[in-house]
Design a protein that fits this description.
By secondary structure, the protein is α+β, with helices and mostly antiparallel strands. It is 43% helix and 22% strand. It has 4 helices and 6 strands, in the order ααββββαββα. A hairpin with a 5-residue loop joins β2 and β3.
Length: 165
């Protein structure tokens, strides 16, 4: 690897990258996770029936249902924003609707790459890849909603690049 000066005008801009989308099944994972979370909150809100006034329970359940609907709308837009791009010297991941983020990690800073699943994504056959770098944060990059083949492919590309440098 050399330390050549680069021309900013000729480099690819992050906004102009062609991002690979995550699996369409990931939308189902997000909907299932949100539904499980809000169903648990709704069940806990039923404990408000123990209070003298049952209207607290009705109000809490209404807030939970409205929150679920808003969350599902935002999740749809968030799915469309998620994507990753592998370049010659780095990997870039973008996500977020309300607070959009784009994270780029140079291969020279990567210390560990791992593949994982949680119970909901395991049910849908999807994986997440974690890229850990030398920064203070534990995981600099986590790409969720990948098929086994894509997760393995990304991990292989990164480890090959690390071994070659």
């Amino acid at each position: 690897m050399s330390n050549r000066q680069i021309e900013i005008e000729t480099t690819d801009r992050i906004e102009e990258l062609r991002y690979e989308p995550v699996s369409p099944k990931y939308r189902a994972v997000q909907r299932a996770s949100a539904t499980i979370t809000y169903a648990t909150l709704a069940a806990l809100a039923l404990l408000l029936l123990l209070v003298d006034n049952p209207w607290w329970c009705v109000a809490a359940e209404a807030v939970i249902v409205v929150s679920l609907i808003v969350n599902l709308v935002i999740l749809r837009k968030a799915y469309l924003r998620k994507g990753y791009a592998l370049r010659e010297h780095d990997i870039t991941y973008r996500s977020g609707v309300i607070f959009p983020t784009t994270t780029t990690v140079p291969f020279s800073r990567i210390q560990q790459v791992s593949i994982r699943q949680n119970p909901v994504s395991k049910f849908f056959g999807l994986y997440a890849i974690d890229v850990v770098n030398g920064a203070q944060t534990l995981s600099a990059l986590a790409i969720h909603g990948l098929t086994k083949e894509k997760a393995d492919g990304i991990k292989n590309v990164i480890t090959q690049r690390l071994n070659n440098d």
